[in-house]
Amino acid sequence: MSRGKRPKWMIDIAVERMNILFERAEMEFITHPERSHRYVELARKLSTKYNTKIPEKWSRRYCRKCGKFLYYGHNSSVRLVDEKVSIFCGECGHVMRIPYNKEKKNKRRAKYESIKKRNDE
Ligand SMILES: [Zn+2]
Asked: What is the pLDDT of residues 25-71, one digit of tens each?
């Protein structure tokens, strides 16, 4: 296949497949974590192949370093440190720091608070 930008319909399909892979990864993590890690690998391959980003919804659900699926409260934890979101990977110990985006602040705060609540339960 030629390099460069793919037609939009092709990218849409790739994004849809990535969503499905991550949804499965989330569903199967508790029973088959090794499958989840494999799904992440496949999604990342799609991302490279179609030169398109992993959907933002899932971009923090895998470790940038070791590529494992991250399940908050199981092999991962999220903290707010110095106005940055820190995502800790329990698989390799890598910490990803994401700057706090002011425009999305309120939205993200709600999101992380709901995750935190889930972790505390
Ligand atoms: Zn890792």
From this structure: 999 999 999 999 999 999 999 999 999 999 999 999 999 999 999 99
Q: Which residue, 13, 36, 59, sits at the end of a domain?
A: 59
Distance 3 CA to ligand 1 centre (A): 29
CA of 7 to the centre of ligand 1 (A): 33
84: left (phi over 0), alpha (psi -120 to 50) or beta: beta
41 and 83 in a single domain? The answer is: no
The secondary structure element, H or E, covering residue 119 is helix 105-120
Domain-embedded: residue 64: no
**Domain limits at 20?**
1-59
Judgement on whether residues 3 and 54 belong to the same structural domain of the protein: yes
**pTM of this structure:** 0.77
CA of 52 to the centre of ligand 1 (A): 22
User: Ligand 1 center to residue 49 CA distance, Å?
Assistant: 22
